[in-house]
Design a protein that fits this description.
It is built from twelve helices and 19 strands. With 358 residues, it is an alpha/beta fold.
Amino acid sequence: MRAAVLHEIGQDKLEVLDDVEAVGFGPGKVKLRVRATGLCHSDVSAMSGVLPQPAPFIPGHEGAGEVIDIGDGVTGLSAGDRVLVCWLPACGTCPACRRGQTQLCLAGFMNAGTPNFKRPGGDVFGFAGTGTFTEEVVVDAGCAVPIPDDVPFEIAALIGCGVTTGLGAAINTAQVEAGSSVAVIGCGGVGISTIQGARVQGAAQIVAVDPVGSRREAALRFGATEAVAPDGLADAKQRITAGEGFDYVFEVVGKSVTARTAYENTRRGGTLCIVGAGAMDDNFQVNMFELFFDEKRILPSMYGGGDVLRSYERAIALWRAGRIDLDSMITHRVQLAEINDALDQMRTGEALRTCIEL
């Protein structure tokens, strides 16, 4: 079967091969035929080494498709079912799951160290234990979440990661209050979803911050009340908050420099929400006096900060009701053979979200 493979960490191009086989099928597993997958910035971060991932590997974790086969012991799924891929399934038994913090379950991360593909030359890993830049994939049954028939595969794929992450940051983690002021730093797919989440919550002002003009224009279409380049944030802060700072600031880039900017633009007593996934050696610093004196809440948000199955259902309900726009988030559609063009479009900011159709 065909799949896009990264041979070594640090390479910026994928090789589309036709000699890849999905392996690991057995009890508790399901085999999926991938129909659509989104290109998420986390895929690029794994390719560059910012996010830890063994290689060679197949990127992709934001996917949807059909069940081909189910292993022994799998219940609630049948061949032919339409599903989205959950890259962080909850085991239901670990301490995090028992506390109701299923987004912190580590069971899914353990899968990342087990190859679920092979080639004549050896084993191949799937990113985050999945790997959806391929025609077929074997995953734990918990990774295959049934979707209603009216949800297109490309929409379901977005809900599988970027939409859930962004919406959840605003709704679950920060719990944005109606009438509040919000700034979102970084307006790719996750940032746009954060903006939509803040709008759903009733924020009065939503300032989108991004260096790419096309992304700023997109942010306005998705609910931002204004959009500025990074050098315009200070002026927006002064005009909108009289210099006090925003009630909520979301960092959706994953770098300490933008996290520091976000902190400085959060009002005293306000909330800084860290949504971007960054590198382990990139340290965010605050001094002990400001940490105490400013009483700003610093809230990381992992995969939307809540139960992902409930978050999927909520996203679908909001999409059906027209409260959020997911269709327009897909600005580019490509075939698997064009994956490197899609990567370039993401790196330059030309693409908001790219759907790879298989």
